[in-house]
Amino acid sequence: MEFGLQISQKIGFSPWWSNAISLVDRLSTRVAEFFSKVKKIGEDDPRRIGHSFKVGLALTLVSVFYYVTPLFVGFGVSTMWAVLTVVVVMEYTVGGTLSKGLNRAFATLLAGALGVAAHQIAIHCGEKGEPILLGLFVFVLAAAATFSRFIPEIKARYDYGVTIFILTFSLVAVSSYRVDELVQLAHQRLSTIAIGVVTCLCTSVFVFPIWAGEDLHKLVAGNLEKLASFLEGLSAECFAEKGGIENLEGKTFLQAYKSVLNSKPTEDSLANFARWEPSHGRFRFRHPWKQYLKVGALSRQCASSMDALATYIITTSTKSKTNTDPDLPLRIRAACKEMAAESANTLKELSTAIRTITVPSAAGRHASAAVAAIGKWRDALSDDTALPQVLHVATTASLLADLVLRVQKIAGSVEELASLAHFKQPEPPVHDAKIKPVADEESPSHLSITLEK
Amino acid sequence: MEFGLQISQKIGFSPWWSNAISLVDRLSTRVAEFFSKVKKIGEDDPRRIGHSFKVGLALTLVSVFYYVTPLFVGFGVSTMWAVLTVVVVMEYTVGGTLSKGLNRAFATLLAGALGVAAHQIAIHCGEKGEPILLGLFVFVLAAAATFSRFIPEIKARYDYGVTIFILTFSLVAVSSYRVDELVQLAHQRLSTIAIGVVTCLCTSVFVFPIWAGEDLHKLVAGNLEKLASFLEGLSAECFAEKGGIENLEGKTFLQAYKSVLNSKPTEDSLANFARWEPSHGRFRFRHPWKQYLKVGALSRQCASSMDALATYIITTSTKSKTNTDPDLPLRIRAACKEMAAESANTLKELSTAIRTITVPSAAGRHASAAVAAIGKWRDALSDDTALPQVLHVATTASLLADLVLRVQKIAGSVEELASLAHFKQPEPPVHDAKIKPVADEESPSHLSITLEK
Fold it and tell me: Which of B46, B141, B405, B436 has a CA 20 to 30 Å removed from the CA of A232?
């Protein structure tokens, strides 16, 4: 029995011990992973650390109003509103802080005045009528203001202001039923909110300022550079004299344009904030930020074309077999190389021009050279009069074939959704066709041909 | 002299009068425009009007706590927090309200507890040490919490919670210096915030609920339908036996896919909110919302392919001249028509399957037919062994040519930016090349050919 007890002790003890060790192990790996992730976020953009300290600084500054008795006596409990304002108004960029601060200040002023007016009207309606009328006012104004947020222009610029308007009007109108010195209270709140906004603005502008306009400027220039690196890679790897379009799937340059495709929300919000920013560095107050959005939209269209091209190249490169070498493709290839290289040069020039705020001088020359290369390609083809006709239809067909494969992928994905979400079976099971996932190597979707080496 | 006076009176009077009339005219047109816009926003989605009334209702409900004396006595001025909570927590969808409400409740609880703990530590440091230590706590926690918002996972789901955490901790820690009955105050605030959250949730869930999940479901299905309508239009207008690719620029079906390209932010936010929603209608709590995002991402890729195809077709259709009719293009065109039509059928089937939550039965058949059409196109080409080689290079070149034109458009746009933003001239003016804006009719960018009629 003693032996059995020892064993059971051993069994009981060992798993607990090893479990605990493995738990600690897993936990420490997790913690280490988390910290390396946090470190990376800080290293990617050290301004993030600066921003975090700025928020701490602004909060500590504004809380001095609590600690210093003569300051506190002036505002009383309303000092709370200064702290509250700092927390919600402080944004990453100067423009963001300005936009929120001004929205908050003006909305509070307007809603406070309307709230006091509502109170003045309501007190003439007697003991019982007052809360009913106040309730009606709050209902109508809150509903109207909420609806106004669906208007795109208001949503983009004054969304926060509308929230604060509803908030302040409700607070003033409703609490006017209980508070006697309403005007004094409103005055205290306004002053403390102003203190909060001013604290935020000073911290934003004077301590390592982060300008939304500058970020937008850099983002747009950087995106042009990414597009250029795709074309450079293409010209070097695909159309080089000794190169060939084979096994390109892993190449990094084929991914370069991808982040550009989803840049719209970031650009829109930066441009929205940049409008509020005062003149800073090389940017005036009325800098043409909207034009950056136009360049951004064209860049995304360009990235979309690159997506079509990259997909086509990757799909065909994986099943390249033929290796003939007539003259025609060589000439076309030279034209392709020129188109890609000159377009890359154009984009690089444009990116540098934006970065250095200099008129792009050489970009026009490169762009013209790229367009001239299109002409060379056309000339290479026009030797055979029957060919162009076929080529046009065939290009359309190639693009369509890519589309067909992408639709098939969607079909597979929806089928997966149907099984994950337990979609019901169709009532009369007429067809029992199954969607086969796309196996790129086997599908008869593309011509099994390549550029000759 | 009297005559002169009359004239000057007439001159002085008439402009003021007509100015006023034209001002009133312009103003009334503006107001009429504004109201027709507002009406359209309401008609586009009548649930917006419902939401506005719901916000008004929730606010009126929660302000009852002010008007009814026994309720007010229990909470005092803290009742304000209930009103404040309703204004900031109430969102358009149930998931949004739930996400914000839970974030607010838990962040307040956690930060409140930490704030009380910070106060307990600080009071042991004497009269002078207390504000310094409290300030230090606020600084460190606010900085750390702000930095945590840069972690993408936290930003996506708990951004609002972190704001409330900083807010509550600062308020509790800082005001603990002045307030004696801290725990009672914290208790009152928590209760009133809970009242606010519960009011919002009840109004959201029980009065015309708007589910983020259902919206996501409909959005994804609707996007598939849009893609299908592009392909249907293509098959009917471009590859019909009597049709031809000419003057397509104005056709609406060529725009059908465009809104799909920018659907990512909406889908992301809806999926984020849908995760919080309880089981409703045909959707369980753990519905695979992530799979919808996958379908959405593939739909955007598909739309990107359509963009390349539509651009190619539009550019070439405007300068179509040749009208020969060999057999080869006819066969290719038939294959194209089949690819487009069958893909459109696939997408329509998938959209209907999602809409009706039924396993897609016929979609697989249509997808296979579309892939089979790719084979037919390949067969049509393989009659001539030299052709495929040329075709591949030519397709690549076509896509590149589109890219070149898009790059040229970017160049024009940046040039416009340079003039709007007064970019400086480059130092040594070596080149004086000018970028000529792209004139689509004249640029030698594409083959001037069409499909035969």
Answer: B436
